[in-house]
């Protein structure tokens, strides 16, 4: 028998081993404890619903409705509305407890009793959560019994077909679905069909209970968190990314237009000074060292400026820069680009570093002979895929650079997907928002 690893019944139903797990029996236990509660609630609702249905039928048929019946319905309806918030409290408490049989996910805690009886009673009539509990109690007393009766009829019919060969005795005929059988031999095919239908029936019972538990969780847990807060977080992150991008461009401009020309001028002046100083002069060697250091500093500064926004990205665009990275790689790399529209600069920069870091990981860790880079643009996203034929087994926890890459992608409101089974191949897919 398989182990129970799903957090709730709805997830377990999607697993292939559901029928041979403990979940069907847990669903049966949940349904068994539902029957008495739903039965009592159905009787209470029936006191009002049955006369109301009779009155509606009379009105529809043009028959007069007597005044005592109308008064009874009005009083009963008001009484039901008055006691419903109070009755629903223990019902909801019991449901919260037994919901764990088929759904181990925690529910939001109920408001604790503060000792103020009047305030607690008033809250039962003014709190939205209390009226959701009322809605659950009404649903449990009206809809659930009808669903359970339908399933019970279906199960009884299947059991009748299954037992039909033993019910036929030659004197009493047995009605099976649309026909009548009078010999056990005629009933055998129906019994076989009923036996084959038993797993389906067992699965349908799980679906019924899963639907009931889903409604119960939705009503007892309440609506999801206000999406406005999530939108504000997203906007805040977008503002931070925009601010970072503006600051990056400022630093790049300052380096390119300020420090880099001055350092170039200094290097030229040192070079000219070396030409004027004899080789046997005591100042010749320190001057040569300063000149070489100035040239090395120029290279370093150029690399820093390029790290802020790579120069080849500015000059060649994303596709050209990706091809340049592929040409510099230690293995063979093919680049396929389908970019019908210009890519926004922040997205382009993020995509460039995705390709650069992914190819560096391939060269360092994948033991691959070939890789492929694919750049595609949809209506809403820029998709970057880097696939190699290496040994696979890439794991962000081992410090392969994927964690930092995922953080960079997340800052651009994108997502990184990784598929790297042992033995390969490895596929890194990044989806970046790229709206026109």
UniProtKB/TrEMBL annotation:
The chain crosses the membrane at residues 28-55, 67-89, 134-157, 187-210. It comes from the Bacteria. Keywords: ATP-binding, Kinase, Membrane, Nucleotide-binding, Phosphoprotein, Transferase, Transmembrane, Transmembrane helix, Two-component regulatory system. GO terms for molecular function: ATP binding; phosphorelay sensor kinase activity; protein dimerization activity. One of its GO terms (cellular component) is membrane. Residues 70-220 form the Putative sensor domain. The keyword Membrane applies. Pfam families: HATPase_c, HisKA_3, Sensor. Residues 349-434 form the Histidine kinase/HSP90-like ATPase domain. It catalyses: ATP + protein L-histidine = ADP + protein N-phospho-L-histidine. PANTHER family: NITRATE/NITRITE SENSOR PROTEIN NARX-RELATED (PTHR24421), NITRATE_NITRITE SENSOR PROTEIN NARQ (PTHR24421:SF10). This is histidine kinase. It comes from Micromonospora haikouensis.
């Amino acid at each position: 028998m398989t182990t129970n690893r799903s957090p709730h019944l709805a997830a377990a139903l999607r697993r292939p081993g559901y029928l041979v797990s403990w979940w069907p029996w847990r669903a049966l236990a949940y349904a068994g404890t539902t029957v008495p509660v739903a039965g009592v609630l159905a009787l209470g609702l029936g006191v009002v619903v049955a006369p109301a249905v009779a009155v509606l039928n009379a009105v529809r048929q043009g028959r007069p409705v007597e005044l005592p019946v109308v008064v009874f319905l009005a009083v009963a309806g008001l009484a039901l509305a008055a006691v419903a918030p109070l009755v629903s409290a223990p019902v909801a408490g019991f449901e919260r407890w037994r919901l764990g049989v088929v759904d181990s996910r925690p529910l939001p805690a109920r408001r604790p009793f503060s000792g103020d009886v009047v305030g607690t009673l008033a809250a039962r009539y003014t709190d939205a959560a209390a009226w959701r509990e009322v809605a659950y109690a009404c649903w449990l007393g009206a809809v659930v019994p009808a669903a359970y009766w339908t399933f019970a009829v279906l199960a009884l019919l299947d059991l009748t077909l299954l037992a039909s060969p033993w019910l036929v005795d030659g004197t009493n005929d047995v009605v099976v679905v649309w026909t009548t059988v009078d010999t056990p031999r005629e009933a055998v095919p129906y019994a076989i069909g009923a036996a084959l239908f038993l797993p389906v029936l067992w699965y349908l019972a799980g679906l019924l209970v899963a639907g009931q538990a889903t409604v119960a969780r939705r009503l007892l847990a309440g609506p999801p968190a206000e999406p406005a807060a999530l939108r504000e977080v997203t906007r805040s992150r977008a503002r931070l990314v925009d601010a970072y991008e503006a600051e990056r461009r400022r630093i790049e401009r300052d380096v390119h237009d300020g420090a880099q020309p001055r350092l170039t001028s200094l290097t030229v002046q040192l070079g000219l000074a070396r030409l004027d100083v004899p080789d046997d002069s005591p100042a010749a060697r320190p001057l040569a060292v300063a000149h070489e250091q100035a040239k090395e500093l120029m290279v370093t500064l150029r690399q820093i400026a390029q790290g802020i926004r790579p120069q080849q990205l500015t000059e060649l665009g994303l596709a050209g820069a990706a091809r340049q990275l592929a040409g510099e790689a230690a293995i063979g790399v093919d680049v396929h680009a389908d970019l019908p529209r210009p890519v926004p600069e922040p997205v382009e920069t993020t995509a460039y570093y995705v390709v650069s870091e992914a190819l560096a990981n391939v060269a360092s860790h994948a033991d691959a002979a070939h890789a492929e880079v694919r750049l595609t643009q949809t209506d809403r996203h820029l998709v970057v895929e880097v696939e190699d034929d290496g040994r696979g087994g890439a794991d962000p926890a081992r410090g392969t650079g994927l964690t930092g890459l995922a953080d960079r992608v997340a800052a651009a409101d994108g997502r990184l997907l990784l598929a790297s089974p042992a033995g390969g191949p490895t596929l890194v897919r990044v989806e970046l928002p790229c709206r026109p």
